[in-house]
Design brief:
153 residues, alpha+beta, 30% strand
């Protein structure tokens, strides 16, 4: 009986630690996965655009009929993704025309900021060494949320 309690206690500790560190709830989307997923949704994937960050991979998914693009970065190291995330976060005012409500969520391997203003809707989402940035209008908020839920960002 005492052995069963120890096993159950051990399992509970593992679950709690996993939940607390975010180990169970993130999805690392690699470059090829990004291309395949958004390509299948009808987005044009470009890898020739310039970026201010030194990334292993920088892709942009866009469609002619929507006013936003999905920027995807894969960095060599997680620290580089954290620096890019912070740069976007610090400069969010460059993408917003009015005051915004910013909601940031962080964990052991992820960071996510959602900025909502009168007109704009902006997402900065980092998982490990990858980052996704989307700047659009509030009209596309549900669509963007659905896209990110699908890829667990």
């Amino acid at each position: 009986m005492k052995n069963n309690k120890s096993v159950i206690l051990g399992i509970i500790m593992i679950v709690v630690i996993s939940l607390a560190t975010g180990c169970k709830f993130y999805n690392l989307l690699e470059t090829q996965d990004f291309k395949e997923h958004f390509g299948a949704l009808g987005y044009t994937i470009s890898d020739g655009e310039e970026t201010e960050f030194k990334a292993e991979s920088y892709l942009v998914a866009s469609k002619e009929d929507i006013p936003y693009k999905i920027e995807y970065y894969e960095f060599a190291e997680e620290v580089d993704a954290k620096k890019a995330y912070k740069d976007y976060y610090d400069n969010i005012g460059n993408y917003i025309t009015t005051d915004s409500k910013n909601q940031e969520t962080t964990g052991a391997v992820f960071s996510k900021t959602v900025a909502v203003s009168d007109n704009e809707y902006i997402i900065i989402s980092r998982v490990k060494n990858t980052l996704i940035f989307i700047a659009t209008t509030k009209d596309y908020q549900k669509e963007v949320d659905t896209l990110l839920e699908d890829i667990k960002y």
